[in-house]
């Protein structure tokens, strides 16, 4: 089965097109951990032009010192980073993408004198639209898996962190492999939505083990299930394995909108998805503790499936 492409334009809860979208989203995310969403209305040129044509170039054009002011001790989740290992790439981001105050705070670090109101408006608008779209996809998926409406509402109420992150990848250093970001990985998010601009790169490993390139079509984004969603769905949904490879060997820009559960809350399987036929797969986990362990040499980096090694009920795990 291919990774589905689902058009959510004008699709409202339980209105026209909802049932078909639910079936397509559920089948694709259960099989591959991902689905491509068409959302021309929300991600139209009136948003994408100021985002990729103005806000993102302005962010990357800042002096390194300014960009570094957003760096954070919290690892890659917040702030500025560049990757070593021969990859020419840099990324800037912050938590609170759908919240005007958090966006202003981020811009205030970069432009201490007066912020950047236009950029803030663009990012806030993008954040709010993506938050709604990602919630819609999760609702479709959880409904499709048989979760009751009130449990879906309670789940969405706990997913408060939304990350905004922009990436600039230079031309791939190795023109044969064309790898822009390695290695293949799953995100520890609840879900990650990726919007690509003009240049290809995102590849998703499908349930059959083959790699599928997600084309950078305007008005679309890729919804990728993260490890938190794997826990919440009691393993019914795999975390989506993905990588970035740019065979055209061009510079590439992308924007990521990632969600995760609030700090201080247990990420646990939804009751509706645990029964005799589907025994519990993962013990509850705390994001703050898991994310520290996951990227440590003595911890998660040793394992092929760090999530399972950390909180799997069945601890039979392979080393990386
Ligand atoms: O740039 C992209 O398309 C993907 C980035 C990514 O996978 C990540 O930052 O986790
Ligand atoms: Fe990723």
Automatic annotation (TrEMBL):
Domain Fe2OG dioxygenase: 160-263
Superkingdom, taxonomy of origin: Eukaryota
Key word Metal-binding present: yes
PROSITE patterns, A to Z: FE2OG_OXY (PS51471)
A molecular function (GO) term: metal ion binding
Iron recorded as keyword: yes
Pfam families assigned: 2OG-FeII_Oxy (PF03171)
Keywords tagged on the record: Dioxygenase, Iron, Metal-binding, Oxidoreductase
Similarity comment: Belongs to the iron/ascorbate-dependent oxidoreductase family.
Function: 2-oxoglutarate-dependent dioxygenase essential for auxin catabolism and maintenance of auxin homeostasis in reproductive organs. Catalyzes the irreversible oxidation of indole-3-acetic acid (IAA) to the biologically inactive 2-oxoindole-3-acetic acid (OxIAA).
The protein's name: 2-oxoglutarate-dependent dioxygenase DAO
Species name: Urochloa decumbens
């Amino acid at each position: 089965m291919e990774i589905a492409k689902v058009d959510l334009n004008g699709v409202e809860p339980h209105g026209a097109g909802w049932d078909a979208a639910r079936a397509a989203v559920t089948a694709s995310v259960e099989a591959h951990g991902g689905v491509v969403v068409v959302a021309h209305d929300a991600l139209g040129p009136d948003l994408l032009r100021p985002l990729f044509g103005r806000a993102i170039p302005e962010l990357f054009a800042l002096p390194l010192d300014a960009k570094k002011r957003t760096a954070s001790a919290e690892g890659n989740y917040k702030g500025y980073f560049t990757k070593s290992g021969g990859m020419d790439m840099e990324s800037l981001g912050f938590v609170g993408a759908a919240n005007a105050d958090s966006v202003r705070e981020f811009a205030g670090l970069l432009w201490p004198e007066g912020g950047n109101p236009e950029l803030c408006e663009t990012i806030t608008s993008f954040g709010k639209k993506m938050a709604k779209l990602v919630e819609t996809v999760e609702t479709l998926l959880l409904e499709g898996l048989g979760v009751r409406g009130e449990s879906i509402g309670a789940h969405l109420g706990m997913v408060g962190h939304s990350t905004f992150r922009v990436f600039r990848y230079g031309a791939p250093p190795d023109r044969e492999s064309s790898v822009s970001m390695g290695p293949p990985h799953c995100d520890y998010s609840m879900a990650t939505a990726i919007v690509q601009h003009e240049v290809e790169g995102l590849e998703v490993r499908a349930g059959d083990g083959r790699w599928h390139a997600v084309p950078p079509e305007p008005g679309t984004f890729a919804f990728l299930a993260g490890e938190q969603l794997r826990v919440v769905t009691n393993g019914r949904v795999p975390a989506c394995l993905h990588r970035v490879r740019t065979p055209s060997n061009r510079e590439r820009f992308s924007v990521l909108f990632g969600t995760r559960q609030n700090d201080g809350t247990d990420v646990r399987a939804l009751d509706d998805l645990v029964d005799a036929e589907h025994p519990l797969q993962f013990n509850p986990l705390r994001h703050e503790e898991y994310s520290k362990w996951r990227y440590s040499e003595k911890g998660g980096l040793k394992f092929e499936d760090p999530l399972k090694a950390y909180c799997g009920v069945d601890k039979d795990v392979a080393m990386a």
